[in-house]
Amino acid sequence: MDYYVDSKEPRSAIRNLSFSISPGEIVGVLGESGSGKSTLALALLGLLPGNARIRAGSVLFRGQDLLRLSHDDFRPYRGAVISLVFQEPAMALNPVMRAGDQISEVIRAHRHCSRTHRRELAQEALRGARLSTAPEIYSAYPHELSGGQQQRVMIAQALVCKPALLIADEPTSALDVTTQAEVLAYLKDSTTRLKAAILMITHDPTTLAGLADRVLVLHEGELVEYGSFANVSERPAHGYTRSVFSSIPKPPVTAIAHREEQSDVLIARRISKKYSGKRWLGKRDVQAVSDVSLTLRAGSTTGLVGESGCGKSTLARCLAAIERPDAGEVWVDGFDLFRLPSHELRERRRAVQLIFQNTAAALNPWLTLEEIVAEPLAISGLPLRQRRDQARALMEELGLPVSRSTHRPTELSGGQRQRLALARALAARPKILVLDEALSGLDLPVQAQITKLLKNLQESRALAYLLITHDLRTAGQISDNIAVMQTGKIVEYRSARELFSEPQHEQTRSLLNAIRSL
Amino acid sequence: MSRRLIPIVWLALLHIAVIGADFFAPYDYTQQNRSMPFAPPTRIHLIDPVSGLLARPFVCESTPVTYVEDCSRRFPIRFFQRRLFGVEEPAVIYLMGSDDFGRDQFSRFLHGGRVSLFAGLLACGISLGIGLLFGAAAGFYRGRLDDFIMGAVELSLALPWLYLLLAARAILPLNTDPSSAFLLIVALVGIVGWARPARLIRGAVLSAREREYVLVARGLGASDAHLLRRHLLPQLGGLLATQASLLIPRYILAEVTLSFLGLGVNEPAASWGNMLAILQRYHVLASYGWMFFPALLLIPTFLSYLALTTAYAPRNQVNHIGALPL
Amino acid sequence: MKRYLLRRLARGLLILIGVSICSFVLADLARGDFFAEARLNSRISKETIAALREQYGLDRPILWRYAHWLASVFHGDWGFSLSYNMPVGPLLWARMQNTLLLTVSAMLLTWIAAIPLGVWIASTGARVNRLLSWSAVAMLMATPDLLVVLVLELIATHSGLLPLGGMISLEYSQMNVWDRVQDLARHLALPVTALVLSSAPAVVTHTVSAMRETLDSAFIRAANANGLRRGRLLFFHALPAAANPLISLFSLSLGALLSSSLIVESALGWPGLGRLMLEATLQRDGYVVIGVVMLSAAFLVCGTLIGDMLLYWADPRIRRE
Prior knowledge:
heterotrimer; A: alpha/beta; Rossmann fold; six-stranded mixed beta sheet; 20 strands; 36% helix; globular; B: mainly alpha; MetI-like fold; 2 domains; three-stranded antiparallel beta sheet; two-stranded antiparallel sheet; elongated
């Protein structure tokens, strides 16, 4: 099979891209958001939106140029010969149809079988996805499944008709590390079993390690590197490739210089919180957090690591006083936050600021950049001119374009939005920053930049950080101490170095194993 | 861009004409002409029959009963003499014909527009005002206040509003003076319709409340007033505009319907509804087509409001011509 | 699920009681009752009127009247109609059947025609088709139902094909079954057409907007990428996911079965509930008014209940609450 695709209108999404892929091979496509990766995937399936056009090129499959096919002629290929697995599994599955039925539908579109036979094939596909409770998964609805299960259902759906090529668009971005490892193992397994070729699109090169035979690197629509994975990762030629591979977070090797004992800025004691069942089928009350105690010190970073659903975000919200815990206390600056009268609480809580993962949702799209950063100042009653000056100073400090300060946040990139959120948080002169998966979802080079920025800020302002993540590697990069969380409890809480070298709890061990296998 | 302006232009023109009815209408709305009942719309001549050239617009005399034109005498249309236009007696300029009492329908249309159009606007204001107050309170404060308000909403929505209007209209004696009838209708229609907008507003406030930037603002120590003013209420603008463009035509229609049934604004005041009431008689319906005009002019008005609803709807709704290659 | 149903039922009952109280209070505020107009007639003496009032209990305090009415509801009487000189219950029952005949037929026709049309408009690629049908729908939507009825009447008058009003011809009782059905159908044609034309545009618009939103979503793109056929995709994948707002609309339509035909009934002389309500209002026949309001409210409550059940069945995401 040969693929050779060229540019699209009006802004060229892809220029002059050629590569080939053979049965059983895994080729990775590495690039940042906007580099043209998803456009490539859609083009290969003949699914480009109406305003896109292919200016030149061909896609040769067994001698046939797929780009010349009409939309209807292409249909028998889609799903049966070339399949696509979309990015966010939660959105890409039909919410009102059972998981197994969705797989059957794909069979129905391509093969003539009886209903029972289809059901069997679907069940078999689910079993192949190593979904242990296959019959239950078959009759479950997508919202009842976890992220990893949803992703595997989607992959099973794409593989059920035994296609020759599977295109996986960021298959693991939305998952936490342990699940990532499982899904990647499943993908690798499929190549050997079904002789399928896989084109794996991602922004994270660590997911390709041990998986991809060759890799394409896309930067702004152009192919900048193409070779075997080993070659490209060890000897990257292009500047962009270099920056990607150097941004991979590495676990702490050297001991972090021993800091003087700093003051405690936040002490959380025995926090507990319950929710009435949101995610889980059948269960009514979920104990999101039980009996958690943490101490944060000025100038130091504590990492909080756990799989999705372990209660990290709930804990973060309790510490930032956005949610009220059922039990326990949060002491900030000597004050018990939840016993304070409301007007005093409003004052005191500014010391703890929360930075969210979803950068777009954390910024009011109707306000200008300046107004967003100046909001804490407006709340404390500063007059307009001073607000503006301080806001601009902060923006400059954080590397944001002050000239565009009257524009809206929609014009910013993901990394810039996060900087803006930080600027806003800093305007409140906090002592503690809680970063709830603040780096996930950003491209690796951007993650590296923000991490560096955070370190600088910490030193200049003696801030305490609580870094919440599902990825031990990210936590290991800048944390002094790491707490591992599982089903609402802290199961291990030690210095970063000790945790990495001598993990005690099995959860910690499984997290470490997951990142090692990537 | 120019396509979007058409509905706004139409509505603006209509409202201006209606507000300035005293000036724009050639006759007083109560002025009767018993010798010319059910006259067809007057023909306006633009071409001089003698010379064949464009002349100053004029009308001819019509004989009563048969309404045959007699152009022996010409009556030029005079402009800007206390009214926008008019003709000398004994000629008449009935642009929309006349009704059974010989009253100029065009003049009554303009005056009736004051009643019907503004009934819609005012009632809409009342509904949205009440709805905003209760809906925002319910969505923002939640808890028991929310339950109570939502209970009231459900009760309100369970009432068959048209029947309720009829029943409530019966509170007043059937022959009140038109202005109290007008105010009563406006108040009733407006109050009855608070529930649906309230529910929508509550939903919008509820979801906006949980957005991350609102949570951040809370974390910054913002007071409730700040949150409402800065983050929540501005977002409601689009929703309110859409609701208004949906409600106003509905309320206009409510007034028209009530007046049509004889339970709204009564004679001698004009309202588009009571002007249409006469069409209930078969011989009028069959023979005097021009009596339909007030109803026909409702169509572009409602279309304009309809166009406005989609103008404010969020991007991913109705107007999205999907480029999906299906 | 059962608990949910019971809770909603209880709530519905509470609402109905609330409605009855509201209507009673409102009716009581009326500055006159059935005999108010009679007072103006000089031939009837004041004593007669007072006596009549006492006979029908109109001079008793409101609480007594409410309790009495409530009791009569359980008997099936629902109070007494002074203009028809019979208990309100059977009157309501007869008229309700007439109205339902009209509105149920109209509703069926509307939904059977409007949904496929809406799906088609939302998914068709040909711009011309879309624009044309969209304009037609918009025009209809902007046309007030009043006008629709009048225009239809006009057409009927000129063509002479259909009867202009009423429900049955004079010779109805002498016809055999087949002729009766035909007669009824001919009388139904006009009012049903009017109702369908008034209500179809709203259904079409809702279907179109719901479908458009769904067709844009990731899971439809994914299903398309898996090579599903267009027809199946539209009706078995997209429509069920888009059903939520449509079900709400459906339940509203169900609830409005008794109240949507007022104009049509009064303009075309159909002997239904709406017409009865109008007459009763004009004549201040209190118990009839209250009876009609209660009945309509009951339908509205049931409609919402059915809607909730349908939503529960159709959308699994709701079930987890």
